[in-house]
Amino acid sequence: MSRNRLGVDAIALTGAALLGACSTVGPDFERPQVPWLADWTGGSLKSLAAEPHGPRTRQTQQWWRNFNDPVLDQLIAEAQRVNPTVRTAGLRIMEARAQLGVANSTRYPQAQQATGELLSVGAQRAGAPDSSEASFSAGLSISWELDFWGKFKRSIEAADAGYLASIAQYDDVQVLMAAQVVSLYCSIRTVEARLLIAHENAALQQRSLEITELLFKSGKDSELDVQQAKALYLGTLSTIPQLEIGLRQTQNALSTLLARAPSPLPEMAAGQDQIPQAELDVIVDIPADLLRRRPDVRAAEMQLAAQSALIGVSAADLYPSVSLLGLMGLSATSLSGSPQVLNWALGPSLVWNVFDYGRLTNTVLLQDARFQQLYEQYQDAVLRAAREVDDAAVGFTRTREQIALLVEAVKAAQRSLDIANLQYREGLTDFQRVLDSQRTFFSQQDLLVASRGNLTQSLIAIYKAMGGGWEQGRSRPVLDDATREAMGRRSDWKGMLTAPLPAPGADAQHTPPPKTERP
Asked: CA-based Rg of the chain, rounded to a whole angstrom?
């Protein structure tokens, strides 16, 4: 057997041994534990979940359909598709896919270079003939750093977790869009109802003013009654401009969410006297699972996983890097009789930054400190999620109780006004009693309508706190046709622009099961 053959076999055996000895440094990601979460029963949400419900179906994925408002359904679908924040979140998914592709490319030779030269070489000599020749060379070099310490594996882990985090952030934007559209929509309807009540009461008070003016002119009443009636009437009228300002500003906010120019929405021209109402749907999820399922909590967890992998990437730099090098080159000249030379080289290479220990060890510490920061941010995200659930649930419960009382208060105020008008016409009481009854009736009506709007807002907050409304976004294209075409013309994205998102729950397999909490 030739020496060359022995050398090649030795190199192959060495490479196989190196590959077999590869290990992965750095911590394996462990799903963070939340100490108080195991005993958390849902707070105020628990009492709502225990309430008897009628024969309703669970509608947490598209919870807004419980309002039975086709216009609202249409606006939410539009916002979740065209809103600039949604579109930006979709583009971040494309960025994460590209980053994952970069990380995956490290599985293969990292340096692959082809070179070539074709030169004309000449010389002029004094008193001697000139000379010229053509020189040709071509070469191919490859360098493949073995993933001896798992540096590239950890890089792929980090990029994969970053990709999943970008999807979770996209889901979170979907939740936010649904909640904001419903909230603004119901705010508009609430202000419209309050304006209707203000106009109705202003008309009622105007009639009372006209009556007092006639009685005053005929000498049957005093000017005091006129001025009091006028003050009440003008005071009610003064509430209308402020309500109209709020109405237009809310309409503009909703238009902006829909990527439209600020203006009232023509779709909402009808139904101005109705505030969307719905009951809380059946809650069957375990509280801990409910919080961990929230897209923002999932995003925080995936960011933590990505940072955990980066600790391993930095730790791998503390150890020597082992690479397999390959080189092949061909060179020749045009000189008569010159040989063609074929050069080649093959073998392992070792590089170890033994004198850069301080920088490398502190880089590991830097990544670990960042991990601990994200760990605390995750704990805070879960805690804030629980608070949002409890705040919304207690708001929903107490506002329902308030509305029941206000309904009776409005009935009593209406009856009081009727009695006051009757007694005033029969001369049994003065006009001040009528004015007081009108003022009370208006304030109770307005408070009832505002409370009904608050009840709807609390219901919206519950579904938002539960993280509902993102699932349908997984079935829609991440990018619209125009954006895909524009990006496709600029760069060769291959299939990344059209690749669908994983179905809800399909990305959960990437999440490691719970383990012992990291200190």
From this structure: 37
